[in-house]
Amino acid sequence: MQDKQYDIVLFGATGFTGQLITQYLSHNAEKENIKWAIAGRDEKKLKSISSSCMGLKPDTVVADVKNYDSLNQMTAKTTILMNAVGPFNTYGPDVIKACLESKTHYLDITGEPSFVASTYNLHHLTAEHNKVCIVNCCGFDSIPADFAAWLTALKLPQHEPKSLKGFIRTNATFSGGTLTTAIQALHMEAKKISHKVKLKRHPDTPKISLKIHYAKEIQGWAIPMPVVDPHIVKRSIYGLPESYGPAAYAQFFVRTSFMKVLKTVLPIASAMIMVRFKFFRDKMFKKFSPGTGPTEARRAQSKFEVICFGESTTAKAKTTFSGGDPGYNETSKMFSQAAFALLDLLKNNKAKCGVLTPVEAFGMPLVDRLRAEGIVLE
Ligand SMILES: NC(=O)c1ccc[n+]([C@@H]2O[C@H](COP(=O)([O-])OP(=O)(O)OC[C@H]3O[C@@H](n4cnc5c(N)ncnc54)[C@H](OP(=O)(O)O)[C@@H]3O)[C@@H](O)[C@H]2O)c1
Fold first, then answer.
1. What's this model's pTM, rounded to 2 decimal places?
2. CATH assignment at residue 89
3. Rounded to the nearest whole angstrom, what is the distance from the C-alpha of residue 40 to the centroid of ligand 1?
4. What is the pLDDT of residue 253?
């Protein structure tokens, strides 16, 4: 581990999610014995957030995505940069570039498939060469799905072809930043300017049908969604053949009635059409203000469950990964614990390099940490 001023700098600490992550880091900073700082473009906001911290108060670092030198100066100060500045398709590329240049490990909470694909396509080899660990999707996207699929695969005979199906249930609501990011991602899909990763599949990989269907195993309607999780799990399958063997993964969102399926699918289908028109796009961006999100009381009622069912030729397995408010409270926990796990791995010279998935980068040490923090993983 290089001797840098900070172990962790959290960039985007002034955002809705960034402020919750700051509080989580602050509560745990002493126990984890970390030197840390929060970063963003507004020094006044940063200072006020730092002084509101209930635990160890962080230093502040001013950096703006639109000023590349400021990004370089920020990343040069820290061993790990935690990035919560979104939309990542817009703001992420230069932050990753600065991390690669200053040999800084990088984690983020993006859920944008195109950004994740371009990060892998453009930077995997450089990250390996520079001995840097870059991990997208260290929040609700995609830690639960990635770990539920991996733990399920580990219970099945390695050499047998296996089908892994993830089912997600949640009653949570979203922040303005998440909704703005989703609109931008849908727009990129509609314009067909999204990046994709092409990976070679094992010839024995089974096929899983991606249709809306009634799934007996969870007694609910299953809807395939255009989210990032399947892309991440497929990269884990590709990167960890010793865990998975030949395996396919598909993911579904669960609704309890067909009426609820319509209530979920129709707004998404109409949003996919409307984002093509600037007039509607601008209206949607205006509706969802950055910096806003579900109240503490609403988050306290939110919960999620990801259940992965695995089936190989001779065996079956099932993993449940569940917790409280997925997008914000539990994302703060998963993201911070991922950074702590990486610090441990670096101290023990066990960290891997490259553009990695959460399972590839953090493995069992993160499972142990999340269980200790109240996440159910069984
Ligand atoms: N995958 C998951 O599970 C998950 C969960 C939660 C959030 N997210 C993602 O995380 C991102 C943030 O969400 P949010 O709800 O926290 O959004 P938000 O409240 O809008 O926060 C955005 C953050 O980006 C900062 N920012 C914007 N432009 C910047 C610039 N030029 N330079 C430096 N910082 C800049 C903002 O700083 P100012 O305060 O100065 O404006 C703010 O700190 C979104 O992309 C969202 O989709 C993902």
1. 0.96
2. 3.40.50.720
3. 10
4. 96
